[in-house]
TrEMBL record:
One of its GO terms (cellular component) is cell outer membrane. It is found in: Cell outer membrane. It holds the Pfam family OEP. Its main location: membrane. This is TolC family protein. Belongs to the outer membrane factor (OMF) (TC 1.B.17) family. GO terms for molecular function: efflux transmembrane transporter activity; porin activity. Residues 1-22 form the signal peptide. Keywords: Cell outer membrane, Membrane, Signal, Transmembrane, Transmembrane beta strand, Transport. Gene3D superfamilies: Outer membrane efflux proteins (OEP). The keyword Zinc-finger does not apply. It comes from Dyadobacter psychrotolerans.
Length: 438
């Protein structure tokens, strides 16, 4: 009975450990990685807050179109009033009620400001759109960063498998060497050479395994995943389109969708609105106003009367700043310079985008050609290894030939995994510079 209880407890304990390990390992496809990057990135959370700030700023600017309404209540002490007599009025001090209080409601509504308020609203809306584009830009940047981590992790795991496979082959070869060494048909140096190769591969395997843990931890930190999460890439990477799409098509797409180009176009529009806003300062402002007050005492008679007096006032107010005629010259010059700089910046960004698209496209095509070359090299290295292995087993090939063939095969396998991931990374970079990394 005790043995059965212990067995049940151990089974439950081992099952719990297996479940915990399964929870610590997270297999991700590229699309799932991008979704996690959007939801877990601290940078994107900050960008989202900036969008909300810009939208709030636009709402605040729109509030300028609403009427202003003020309510005022006052209470205080009044001293006796002193007068200097004119005509029949005697000079001296006259008694008056010492307690005063008033109630006032006043409202005003801006009718015309030369377009200053409207330009302010439009500038705030442009800032909100710019914040949204910056969010998209940051989102693509995070995705490209995570894609780099992801492909690096995929490459390292593939390389680990290559080392493990070659270590197994080297161990089998070493067994054959030991058999022949015992039979006296091989030299001790042949065994040492094989053991050196095997130890070097084991060391490289340790280094690759350590790098896998480092990259996985960096990804978990960036994605705000629980500490200790092991990320496992999907063994089947997404297929990358071939280079049939011409460079001109990529460039045209970038002009339409690249966030930096759109941001600088909005910056240029913002500079134009600021110039119009400064120009509006040369125009008068017109507004409607109304006020209704109740005040006590009535001080417009001598002696003052302790009564409430009601006063209603409605009218049209026209304001014109004479100081603006000379103060706004510097502001207009600054706004004009800002517009000129925005135009130049927009042209510079367009130029840099064309260069970036050309470079990314060229590197992508090169990566495809390199992948084809590495695939061919691996076929040749594998065939060479097979032939020399057969020759070695038939004792017509030297151990040095076997070692060289093994090294060539190992090197081409590693280069192929690098070329496979590099082609996909170059494609992601091309999508990034054209604004299509979604």
């Amino acid at each position: 009975m005790k043995a059965r209880i212990v067995l049940i407890f151990l089974s439950f304990f081992m099952g719990s450990i297996g479940s915990a390990r399964a929870q610590d390992t997270l297999r991700l496809k590229v699309e799932d990685l991008f979704k996690l990057a959007e939801s877990g990135s601290r940078l994107l959370k900050l960008s989202a807050i900036r969008i909300q700030e810009a939208e709030t700023g636009a709402d605040i600017a729109k509030n300028q179109l609403l009427p202003d309404i003020d309510v005022a209540v006052s209470a205080g002490y009044l001293s006796n009033v002193g007068v200097i007599g004119m005509g029949t009025m005697k000079s001296g001090f006259y008694d008056m009620p010492h307690f005063s209080n008033s109630y006032l409601v006043q409202a005003s509504y801006l009718l015309f400001s030369g377009g200053s308020v409207r330009r302010d609203i439009e500038i705030s809306e442009l800032r909100s759109r710019i914040a949204g584009l910056n969010f998209e830009k940051d989102k693509m940047g995070i995705k490209l960063l995570m894609a780099g981590y992801y492909l690096d992790l995929y490459r390292l795991i593939r390389q680990r498998a290559v080392y493990e496979r070659n270590i197994d082959q080297a161990n089998l070869l070493l067994e054959k060497i030991n058999t022949r060494l015992k039979a006296g048909i091989l030299l001790k140096s042949d065994k040492i050479r094989s053991e050196l190769l095997l130890e070097d591969m084991k060391l490289q395997l340790v280094r690759v395994s350590s790098r896998i843990r480092i990259v996985s931890n960096a990804m978990a930190e960036t994605l705000s995943l629980p500490e200790g999460t092991i990320i496992e890439p999907d063994p089947t990477l997404p297929a990358v389109a071939n280079s049939a799409v011409k460079l001109d098509n990529w460039t045209q797409t970038a002009v339409q969708t690249e966030p930096d180009i759109q941001i600088n176009e909005l910056n240029k529009q913002t500079a134009q609105k600021r110039q119009q806003q400064v120009r509006a300062a040369y125009l008068p402002q017109a507004s409607l106003y109304a006020s209704n007050g109740l005040a006590r005492p009535y001080v417009y008679d001598i002696p003052a009367k302790d009564i409430y007096a009601n006063n209603l006032n409605v009218g049209l107010r026209l304001n014109y700043s004479l100081g603006g005629l000379y103060k706004n010259k510097a502001r207009m010059a600054a706004a004009t310079q800002g517009l000129t700089a925005a135009v130049q910046q927009s042209e510079l960004v367009m130029e840099n985008t064309r260069k970036a698209v050309f470079n990314a496209y060229t590197l992508w095509v090169e990566a495809g050609q390199q992948l084809a070359s590495e695939q061919k090299k691996l076929e040749l290295a594998t065939e060479n290894y097979r032939r020399i292995l057969n020759g070695y087993e038939q004792q017509v090939a030297l151990i040095t030939d076997m070692t060289d063939a093994s090294n060539q095969k190992l090197e081409t396998e590693l280069q192929l995994t690098t070329a496979q991931t590099m082609q996909i990374m170059r494609y992601f970079e091309l999508q990034k510079v054209t604004g299509q990394l979604n």
